[in-house]
């Protein structure tokens, strides 16, 4: 079957972080169904005659339900259109792509998935801090900070706290106070390094350093509700401190 739908990652925001494969898909598309947070400069890469439809959400308000998005993907593909479903970051990380794949497969529509640079990678690059570090952080855990019905998701807080490594929390701005409380109650020390990064990779990127106990207030003091990634863990300290720690570990 000819591929009719490309489930495509637009990356964290910076158009230069778009993959070549994603760029080619956008250029070839007859129809682009895009998230609201996809940078306008990326959408502008579409052909002049392409139909671009905003199906995303902003500030918690859904412009189009997931069921409607699935229906649009199927309808345009069945009409013979080349369709790009353009998602922020990587479509396979908190992108609801499974529901779209199921809808396409149910109607026998050929599709492909084009990976994108996820926000965690962009944040780490901006900070100049690796999410994994020898003798410091041997694992990375991607979490959602927002449950399906709103509020906090049902994570195993104790297991996450004991696992160590670096925690990367997507969509955690609004629930950060509750997240911090759960982690501290589960045994995380209050001075655990934590960073919030708004609009990672974009010109208006803003970074807030703190600890798991101080960060909720620092983030809450800033106006607005722009996309914010929360990073928590021992790896998120000054690079000179990390180097000193590694030297000490090697010496021992």
Give me the secondary-structure topology.
Layout: E1 5-9, H1 20-28, E2 31-34, H2 40-43, E3 51-54, E4 57-58, E5 61-62, H3 66-78, E6 83-87, H4 97-106, E7 111-114, H5 119-127, E8 140-144, H6 157-163, E9 166-170, H7 176-185, E10 193-198, E11 206-211, H8 215-220, E12 228-232, H9 239-251
Parallel strand pairs: 1-6, 1-7, 2-3, 2-6, 8-9
Antiparallel strand pairs: 4-5, 9-12, 10-11, 10-12
Helix pairs in contact: 3-4
What does this structure look like?
The protein is an alpha/beta fold. It folds into 2 domains: 5-114, Cobalt-precorrin-4 Transmethylase, domain 1; 119-241, Methyltransferase, Cobalt-precorrin-4 Transmethylase, Domain 2, CATH 3.30.950. The chain has 9 helices and 12 strands. It has helices spanning 20-28, 40-43, 66-78, 97-106, 119-127, 157-163, 176-185, 215-220, 239-251; strands at residues 5-9, 31-34, 51-54, 57-58, 61-62, 83-87, 111-114, 140-144, 166-170, 193-198, 206-211, 228-232. The strands form 3 sheets. It has a 5-stranded parallel β-sheet, with helices on both faces. Strands 8-9-12-10-11 form a 5-stranded mixed β-sheet. Helix 6 (157-163) links the parallel strand 8 and strand 9 (166-170). The longest helix is centred in the N-terminal third of the chain and has 13 residues, at 66-78. The protein is elongated and about 55 Å long. It starts with a strand and ends with a helix.
């Amino acid at each position: 079957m000819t591929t009719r739908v490309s489930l495509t990652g637009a990356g964290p925001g910076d158009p230069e972080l778009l993959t070549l494969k994603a760029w080619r898909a956008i250029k070839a598309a007859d129809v682009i169904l895009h998230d609201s947070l996809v940078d306008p400069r990326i959408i502008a890469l579409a052909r002049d005659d392409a139909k671009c439809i905003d199906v995303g959400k902003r500030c918690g308000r859904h412009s189009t339900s997931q069921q409607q998005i699935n229906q649009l993907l199927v309808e345009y593909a069945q009409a013979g259109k080349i369709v790009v479903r353009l998602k922020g970051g990587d479509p396979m990380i908190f992108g609801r792509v499974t529901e779209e794949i199921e809808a396409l497969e149910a109607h026998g529509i050929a599709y492909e998935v084009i990976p994108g640079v996820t926000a965690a990678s962009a944040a780490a690059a901006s900070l100049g801090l690796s999410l994994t570090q020898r003798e410091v952080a041997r694992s990375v855990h991607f979490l959602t900070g927002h449950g399906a019905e709103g509020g906090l998701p049902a994570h195993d807080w104790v297991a996450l706290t004991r696992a160590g490594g670096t925690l990367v929390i997507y969509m955690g701005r609004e629930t950060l106070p509750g997240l911090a409380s759960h982690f501290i109650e589960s045994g995380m020390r209050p001075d655990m390094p934590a960073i919030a990064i708004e609009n990672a990779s974009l010109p208006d990127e803003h970074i807030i350093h703190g600890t798991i106990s101080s960060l909720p207030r620092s983030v809450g003091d800033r106006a607005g509700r722009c996309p914010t990634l929360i990073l928590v863990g021992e790896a998120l300290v000054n690079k000179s401190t990390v180097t000193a720690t590694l030297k000490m570990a090697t010496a021992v």
